[in-house]
Amino acid sequence: MKLRYLGHSAFMLTCAENIRILIDPFISKNPLAHIDLSTLKADYILLTHAHGDHIGDTLSLADKQHTTIVCVSELASYFAKEGYKTHAMQIGGAFTFDFGRLKLYPATHGSMTPDGRYGGLAAGIVLEIGNICLYHAGDTGLFGDMKLIAELHKVDYFMVPIGGNFTMDIQDATIATSWIKPKYAIPMHYDTFPVIKTDPQVFRTAVQDFVDDTLILQLGAEISL
Ligand code: NI
Ligand code: MN
């Protein structure tokens, strides 16, 4: 399985049988990203919430015949009305797809589409693919029930926002990481805009006792899981 960082909170997972999963594909409007959208084909697009920096390029990247958009039901109906294939879920619900099991967890955050429609609750996503567990926390502040997620899942890769202002900053992301105790922490949602500028090396130092390693991924970089 491969994981490619597309900047901000966007990732492309390529799993067995070449199933391609895009998460929060904010690409073309990312001031730091220079990735050609035509290179990003997806079987699934997973969305943590409706904000523009997470829905991103979903409308143009999703193939109406082929791509399934997975998100909370309020947001799914927004895409379904436009003729897209969706799989609606809700917080606390899990479903086993052909690639593995996906469960939605809470995130303490808002959610509204760029054109002002209610997006339902914001979510974090736990993926269990083969024997690998990934937790993409979405946009969230620190909340105590992350301890429950740690109790229920042995997280290998923790994609955690560290940029502050809209989400946890490094201090709170460090507490979250101390609870989740992943093998690898992957900081995200920083530097994209001036207001979320921060130094991931400070995060790396802060969490060194809680993880095997912190993976500070360069934009466009791909790693094997
Ligand atoms: Ni947001
Ligand atoms: Mn965001």
CATH classification, class level: Alpha Beta
Number of helices: 6
Using only CA atoms, what is the Rg? 16 Å
Query: Which ligands accompany this protein?
Result: nickel (II) ion, manganese (II) ion
Alpha-beta classification: alpha/beta
Residue-averaged pLDDT = 97
* CATH architectural designation: 4-Layer Sandwich
Q: Which fold name fills CATH's third level, the topology? A: Metallo-beta-lactamase, Chain A
Question: Describe the biggest sheet?
Answer: 7 strands, mixed
Described by the principal axes of the CA atoms, the overall outline is globular
Number of strands: 14
Physical arrangement of strands within the biggest beta sheet: 6-5-4-3-2-1-14
Residue ranges: pLDDT <50 for 5 or more in a row? none
How many individual domains?
Answer: 1
- Oligomeric state, counting identical vs distinct chains: single chain
Helix content: 10-25%
Word description of this protein:
This protein has 225 residues and is an alpha/beta fold. It has six helices and 14 strands. A hairpin with a 2-residue loop joins β9 and β10. The longest helix is centred in the C-terminal third of the chain and has 11 residues. It is globular, with a radius of gyration of 16 Å. The mean pLDDT is 97. It has a single domain, classed as Ribonuclease Z/Hydroxyacylglutathione hydrolase-like (Metallo-beta-lactamase, Chain A, 4-Layer Sandwich), CATH 3.60.15. Strands 6-5-4-3-2-1-14 form a seven-stranded mixed β-sheet, covered by helices on one side. A seven-stranded mixed β-sheet has the order 7-8-9-10-11-12-13. The site of manganese (II) ion has 6 residues, from α1.
